[in-house]
Amino acid sequence: MSVTFYHPFVFILTFVSYAFFHASRKTFSNVKTTISDEWTPSFSNSTVNETLPNQTWNKHKLFDNGKDAELFLGVLDATFLTSYAVGLYISGMVGDRFDMRKILCFGMCSTAVIVFIFGCVLEWVEFYNKYVYVLLWIINGLLQSTGWPTVVAVMGYWFGKSSRGLVLGLWSACASVGNIIGSLMVSSVLDYGFDYAFLLTCSVLFGGGIVIFFGLVSTPSEVGLRYNREGKLVKSTIIVNETISSNDRSVETDEISAPLIEEEELNKEEEEIVIQIEPRALSLCQALLLPGVILYSLAYAFLKLVNYSFFFWLPYYLSNAHHMAESQSDAISIWYDVGGIIGGTIAGFISDLTGRRAVVVIPMLILSVPALFIYGNFTGGYTINAVLMAVTGFFVGGVANLISAAISADLGQQGPIKDNSKALATVTGIVDGTGSAGAAIGQILVPVIQKSQGWKSVFVLFMIAIALTALCVLPIFINEVKDIYSKYRYSWFTGLKIETFADRRNIEDDSTTNRHIE
Length: 518
What we know:
mainly alpha; Growth Hormone, Chain: A; globular
């Protein structure tokens, strides 16, 4: 793969843009305790309540007790994820049909406005209404869904498959970095009020959207670049409505309804004329029928239930079960994301070396079960809590990063659609949309189970979800293991170094052809 001046800028801009998306989401999960206190009666400060009328302290009451407020917060999470899941299916198809730079910019700026209204304006005007909160969070989910399919598609277009596991494994840390940024932002201003936390993160998100509009290059073709059949980046010039003669033959662009491209390799002076037919965007059904899409989508639904439950409820869990101060629980919760960053990067690197993803995914899922069990039954100090949290994030968050980024890009550029530049966002939207649907169900189950059975039962739910994730990936894992076995078995018998099973088939085909020629 040829690396150009544009590659690092694309990496940084898409990374930062989605990190800002996640920072705005993390704000809500990190201020849940404060919001819950705001929405319930304040009877704790008896001295103040004796000197001031009860109405002054309880006029904003939405719920009679903290448990009801907690359930409503879970409803808001589920509402967001449901609309987010629906929006992902739509945004994926839109991203393959329109300018992704403009879509991403619109999603970032409009999301910032909605978050500003939810967290700041309604608080400043002292307007408290459950139905308005739900409506705003539905809109928020739809708008935020523009982010992931577009940024993954942009990265998939710029970075080839040979190093995609490592590059996208590292890049997929954008969500975890966004969580860390959000946690640090919230903890720095939460003492002034939760409205300041929303104000800070949505301002950063809006500013990021402006930078994306003026700075992002969505595809190599926008700057006269494309990948040839060997996977090398080459310069290209689109020639429209002209006739080009080559070997005494004329090709009319109007007759074939496709542009002619004059291609020049970056490090060579040779030029060649190729005809490139404009690809057609896949429909939702066509994308669903691609190999592996349904299995990985279902797997990600169960996995994202666990990953997003940590995302939404970890600070609250630390505050509620381990009796930490809210600012302290916000700060220590970043270690789950640190583990996810390391896990996703290492998993991507190993999957690049093996050339297969499922053989890395399944072992990590198996190891995540004891990690969840230990952490769910742990009672101890902050340091050990952070270490166990990071280990859990390494396995759970690492696999989630790999599936949502590198594997989604692989699925959107495989086999017959390898050269189709209008399929990647649609496939990514399906995988992440199905995952978000599973996560939405989880956000309803977590507060209900916690209220009736306690936090240990919640971790049992997580372990069951991980087992179901592994079950969905198992058929792909078995096929990859068979492929590896066939490759090395053939290499052992012949003494040849065969890179892939496909190479072995090609050699066999060539041998058969030569025999027929002789």
